[in-house]
Amino acid sequence: MSANILYNGCLNLEIDNKIISLDPEGKVDADIVFISHAHMDHSISNETVTPKVTSEATKELVQFRRGLQMINTITFDIFDFNGINFKLLNSGHVIGSKSLLLKFKNKRIFYTGDICDKHRFHMKAADIPNSDIMIIESTYGSSMYEIPSITEIIEESKKWIREELSDGNSLVLYGYPLGKAQIISKIAEEFDVPIIINDYIFQINEICKRYGFSSKDFIPHSKYQKDDQAVYIFPASSRRKSPAIEAKKTKTAMFSGWALDDDYKHKIGVDKAFPLTDHADYKGLLKIVKQSSPEKVFTFHGFHNDLAISIKENLGIDAEPLESGLYKLF
Ligand SMILES: [Zn+2]
Ligand SMILES: [Zn+2]
User: Fold this and answer.
1) Torsions phi, psi of 237, nearest 5?
2) I want to staple 145 with a disulfide (CB 3.0 to 4.6 A). Which of 70, 140, 258, 290 is the partner?
3) Is 107 helix (H, G, I), strand (E, B) or coil?
4) What structural domains and CATH numbers belong to the chain?
5) Each residue of 189-228: pLDDT tens digit?
């Protein structure tokens, strides 16, 4: 039995000469592929016959977002492949997101994909298994990123929306189309003004509704003709092109964990920014590692150097940031 990590921008596990590719973004060269969730930097961009392991929700979201057919997809939560046991667990990040626990012989490897340890609306916090080796994302792996309580951020954003609406303003709320947009939809639904939703987000919401998300029926932007006061929900990436906002008095807000940086809202040019995230923050990542209690951790994707140091210093667990190369596990 042998197991290695092969990292060259793409993260692969080699177990007994079989290659398991983890969240490959580009071309796939592996025996089996794991797709943790349907964010663009984690999902395949080409159709391939290589077996793909993911959830039903992610399969449908990737097909929609990438415009491809996910042929040969395995959506079981537990199955065996070449003597390796695959178990998919809720990673708490976005609708359909999974982490992966691999068991073979008496070893367990836990790969997080993107992970969140906090409950919010329809999203439940990640399930954390025990492991021997852990490969963890490090998006907010620096101690700079301690995110305040999600309840507080949600309440603060509702207060701001309430005040701006009573001042007669229309609002544009920006966030990633998958994940943040559904959370913003939940925040917005209690307000008694038309909620106008970008057509692409509308379609993603409709898919998410089949997998545990529920919200009021909002109006797709293309179907809204009026000029009244309204709340608009739009993709983060559309803010520079600014959606055709019909209302005259408009305020804008971004929902993103990066809002913890003081100059973020000026940098991206919005009136307000709320540090709402679908990732574990720095303390959350340490908590997840502690809970899984592995012998060794590999960090990648984000502040991987900082997180590896913190895991060693704070938890006394061996940790190494992944750089290009081969890492022998057993
Ligand atoms: Zn993600
Ligand atoms: Zn990511």
Assistant:
1) -70, -15
2) 140
3) strand
4) 3-145+279-328 (3.60.15.10), 150-274 (3.40.50.10710)
5) 999 999 999 999 999 999 999 999 999 889 999 998 877 8
